[in-house]
Amino acid sequence: GAKIVRTPTSASYDSPHSHIKVAQKLCQQIKNSVILDQYRNVNNPLAHYDNTAEEILHQTDHNVDMVVVGAGTGGTVTGIGRKLKEVLPDCKVVGVDPFGSILALPEDINKSDTTFYEVEGIGYDFIPTVLDRSVVDKWYKSEDKSSLEMSRKLIAEEGLLCGGSSGTAVVAALKAAKDLREDQRCVVILPDGVRNYMTKFLDDNWMNERNFATNAEEEEEQKPWFWNEPIHNLVKGMNVESVAPNTKCFEAISIMRRHGYDQLPVLSDDSYLVGMVTV
Fold first, then answer.
1. Is the Cα dihedral 159, 165, 171, 174 positive or negative?
2. Helix, strand, or coil (residue 208)
3. pLDDT tens-digit map of 29-68
4. CA torsion sign, 99 to 103 to 108 to 109?
5. Are 76 and 69 in contact (CB under 8 A)?
6. How many CB atoms lie under 10 A from the CB of residue 123?
7. Can you say whether residue 255 is alpha, beta or left, with left for phi > 0 and alpha for psi between -120 and 50 degrees?
8. Which segments cross the bilayer (predicted)?
9. What does DSSP assign to residue 92?
């Protein structure tokens, strides 16, 4: 199989630790290697121009009033947008971009305190070469909570095993489609599957840890019994080995060695947790 080189998602596109720069470095180091480069490769939007857009036109009998597409590299929205604008000039192309990304226009709507988002596959901190923002009639910004809640809803209620960016597109589509008449048609692109996210937004605990529970009642049901308990209540009255703030170091080490521990809680006289001692 392939060798996987992991890079931090927090790295900016021009950082030497970003997936782009690491790929470029590896390409220089590995003989006979090539970067397909989805950000600059003209075949990226061309594939959607020649295939995805044609499929949409065929399946809808050329009857499309709006298409909603999430933007990542920009290949999908660019290719689909260009073809539909050529064939159906009145068709509205809606782009979706998460808060924390800078792809949307006008640029003012990108202003946000958000610097990180959980939904993958959409949004960037730079404008990819293949992205033609002129084909997009209107942009919607998205946030994690509603996107991931919608993805879970699509799985549970519609049987669509989709990923996070699909939820993002549907949330935006529900807003954008309010501008349509009942007899008009909106196509929403669901570009990802759930396979790569089995331990993420499908996991109730993962959602709870990020305050993404779908509603207050569900959130309370899913939280473990100790969630809202003060820490000192969890150790107070329990038979837990601990030390006091004035315990000497050699005494703490002796206790840990005797019990095979590598850490001990430090409790005050009234059983409040005030720290930890480790070796």
1. negative
2. helix
3. 999 999 999 999 999 999 999 999 999 999 999 999 999 9
4. negative
5. yes
6. 24
7. alpha
8. none
9. E
pTM of the predicted structure, to 2 decimals: 0.75
Task: Name the phi and psi angles at 119, rounded to 5.
Answer: -65, 130
With residue 168 as reference, give the H or E element that holds it. helix 164-176
Q: Provide the 10 A C-beta neighbour count for residue 94.
A: 25
- Structural domains in the chain, CATH included, are 1-35 (no CATH), 43-216 (3.40.50.1100), 231-278 (3.10.580.10)
Digit-coded pLDDT (tens) for 166-221: 999 999 999 999 999 999 999 999 999 999 999 999 998 899 889 887 665 565 66
The helix (H) or strand (E) run that includes residue 274 is strand 273-278
Instruction: State how far the alpha carbon of 98 is from the alpha carbons of 7, 90, 119, 138, 206, in Å.
Output: 21, 26, 8, 14, 20
SS3 state of residue 22: helix
For residue 148, with 0-12 CB atoms within 10 Å meaning exposed, 13-18 middle and 19 or more buried, which class applies?
buried
